[in-house]
Amino acid sequence: MDKVTAEAKQSPRLRMNYNFHQSLEDKCHRFLNAMEPGTQVAVHHHITKDESLVVLRGKVRVLIYNDEGEITENEVIDPKEGRYGVDIPKNTWHTVECLAPETVVFEVKEGPFVPHEIDGILEIKK
Q1: CATH code, domain with 63
Q2: In terms of Cα–Cα distance, which of 58, 64, 53 is closest to 99?
Q3: Is the CB of residue 56 less than 8 Å from the CB of residue 30?
Q4: What does pTM read for this prediction?
Q5: Where are the beta strands (DSSP E) in 41-121?
């Protein structure tokens, strides 16, 4: 975790993956996602794939949106507070924001890799 965290700190995106799966074509993707504050995954959805996140270290905010771009769930995942993870059902608009230094999340989702499925950008309501 320390190695991938150091790489995240040097990345312009302030995050870095460490893949346990061997190929982007694998049927199951399992990886560490190291993040630093200031990084936020773009709002996206996986049309046919569930996604599970478990925070191993640090803290994240997970926002869930409806199709109208309105926030329907706002969850802070922090193992120190007894909140360890979240399961995001397929076809659910969501984002993940890092809230603490040296955050590391274990993620699992179905492969193969498909770039963020944003068939029509979701207009987020402020």
Answers
A1: 2.60.120.10
A2: 58
A3: no
A4: 0.87
A5: 51-57, 60-65, 71-77, 85-88, 93-98, 103-110
Tokens standing for residue 8: 């995240």
Beta bridge partners of 87: 52
- Let me know if residue 23 belongs to a domain: yes
Q: Which amino acid is at 107?
A: E
- Mode of pairing for the β-strands spanning 71-77 and 51-57: unpaired
Cα distance between residue 6 and residue 9, in whole Å: 5
Is 85 within 8 Å of 53 (Cβ atoms)?
yes
Which CA distances in Å does 90 have to 5, 38, 65, 119?
28, 26, 13, 14
Condensed to tens digits (0 to 9), the pLDDT of residues 7-51 reads 999 999 999 999 999 888 888 899 999 999 999 888 988 888 999
**How many domains are there within the chain?**
1
Question: What's the full length of the chain, in residues?
Answer: 126
